[in-house]
Amino acid sequence: MILRVEGLKKTYKQNRAVDNVSFQVEESSIFALLGPNGAGKTTTIKCILNLRKADSGKILLNGSFAYLPETKELYRYLTVEKMVEVSSSVTQNFEKNKCIELLDEFQIPLREKIANLSHGMLTQTYMALVLSQKADIYFMDEPTWGLDPIMRNRILELIRALTYDGRTVFYTSHILAEVEKVADVVAIMVKGKIAEVDSLDNLKEKYVLCVVPKGEKIDGFHYKSTENEDIYVVRKESAKGIVEPANFDVIFESIVKGVK
Amino acid sequence: MWFSVDFSSPVPVYKQIKEKIKALIKSGKLRKDDFVPSIRSLAQDLQVNINTVARAYRELMSEGVLQPVRGEGYVVGELNEEDFTNQLIEQFERAAVDCKRVGIDLKVLKEKLEMIYGRNEDDFESRRA
């Protein structure tokens, strides 16, 4: 166990962003925190890293960390090359050669000013900087946002490769197809609470879709209704009616909608 | 060793890996005492997580389908053919029930089966070419 969060709470002026959240992350695994916009994912990361002061709760972080924030901002007036220098001088265990190699692979012009990079290139540059930092756990907030599918797959590969060396990744995303490819464990966060947390494979085994006559009571998450039927995502043991397998998209959507 | 994995399928990925390895054994492409790739290299080749392959291998080992060789990796052990065959037949039955439910004529299915069973390897190769 490299990270444990217990009863984390954080309230901004009006809204309760993180509401009594608990989970733990195992070493060498990829943990995905997943949820709709405004669920509290970024605030959770910021509280873990002490960039926001939590109202209450316990956080145990056993090791060094690297962090890719949601807003990818670097010094605009610096060239990419200079940015690498700066990172190298202020970051512990920074592998400069690896960073240059990654930037080269991503085809980022080293002499270009940060300000002139496209959104995607900026994300890739930031990612190269973070991946070149040796750490026990990597926090990545929306690491593939705005990247094309091929680059996204490459980033996923690099994320996966971290775990081959025993490192851990904690990341957030709202792209389900991506999460399915890379996450070991997913935590579904809705309205500041963790609605479900388990390995992706376990979730697929745990839930099925049930089609029951309209109005029939069933213990599960409502997915949708047709004229004569209600369709629910239900735990296997309480399944009834017509039972169909449920894919992760459906499970996710139903759980998110089911949280009042 | 390579096969495709469907991440968006309701079937858990570790299960897909187990089934595909069993199918390779059943079809004779993997034989008893053959080495299978290490967990890490299969994960890399399939582009899935290491933990997922580890889980598949762990279960295959407890079923005796794979056996660890100390310091060297994993070799193919005994495939419980009966279990595996039964599983496939169950899958076939489910598909057949679906066909029946939507009113597909038995004759159509029979023709399909005859076509598949009557087709020899040469035909298959030429179809692929």
Structure description:
- The complex is a heterodimer of chains A (260) and B (129).
- Chain A contains 8 helices and 13 strands.
- Chain A is of the alpha/beta class and 260 residues long.
- Chain A folds into 2 domains: 3-200, 3-Layer(aba) Sandwich (Rossmann fold); 202-257, no CATH class.
- In chain A, the strands form 3 sheets. A 6-stranded mixed β-sheet of chain A has the order 5-6-7-3-8-9, with helices on both faces. Chain A has a 4-stranded antiparallel β-sheet with strand order 11-12-10-13. In chain A, strands 2-1-4 form a 3-stranded antiparallel β-sheet, with helices on one face.
- The longest helix of chain A is centred in the middle third of the chain and has 16 residues, at 149-164.
- The radius of gyration of chain A is 20 Å and the shape is elongated.
- Chain B has 129 residues and is mostly helical.
- Chain B folds into 2 domains: 13-76, Orthogonal Bundle (Arc Repressor Mutant, subunit A); 81-128, no CATH class.
- Helix content of chain B is 60%, strand content 8%.
- Chain B is built from 6 helices and 3 strands, in the order αβααββααα.
- In chain B, strands 1-3-2 form a 3-stranded antiparallel β-sheet.
- In chain B, β2 and β3 (73-76) form a beta hairpin.
- In chain B, α1 packs across α3 (50-62) and α2 packs across α3 (50-62).
- Chain B is elongated.
- Classes of the chains: A alpha/beta (260), B mainly alpha (129).
- The A-B interface holds A 28-30, 153, 156-157, 160, 163-164, 177, 180-184, 200-202, 204-205, 245-249 and B 7-15, 40, 43-44, 47-52, 55.
